[in-house]
Amino acid sequence: MPLTVARVEAELDQVYCPFSGKAIQDDDGEIAKLPSLLFVYYGNAGLYAYVSEQFLGFVKEANLECEDGLPADGPEEIAPKLDVKTAFLLEVDAGRNGVNAYGFVVPQ
User: Fold this and answer.
1) Four-CA torsion 100, 18, 32, 70, nearest 10 degrees
2) Whole-number mean pLDDT of the chain?
């Protein structure tokens, strides 16, 4: 079963973790190392800004390719190939700011 993908269109100043309610980034733009945050992907730049060890474990478990320690493909390509029932992908279409993706997993 592939990752569930939720898509929203909104020009948000901040994205919050659905499990903790905490902001994904602080005021300085640093990404929070939240237990339920798997990754942050900036679509306009085509790069992962944050990848957790847990997400890398899921990627390796699925035998997906990595380059320089990061997944070689973006979230849209990876989501259908991962079988993690407790995780989902949130895509935020921020209009002129592009589409960013956030991976979340139910905290243990």
Assistant:
1) -50
2) 90
- Contacts for 108 with CB less than 8 Å, ≥ 6 apart: 35
Over residues 26-50, the pLDDT tens digits come to 888 899 989 999 999 998 889 999 9
Is residue 56 a contact partner of residue 78, using CB atoms and an 8 Å limit? no
Give dist(CA 36, CA 62) in Å, integer: 20
In Å, the largest CA–CA distance within the chain is 37
Of 53, 52, 28, the residue nearest 41 (C-alpha): 52
Is pLDDT at 2 greater than 90 in this prediction?
no
Q: What is d(CA 17, CA 95) in angstroms, rounded to the nearest whole number?
A: 21
pLDDT at position 73 is 92
Strands 99-105 and 37-42: antiparallel
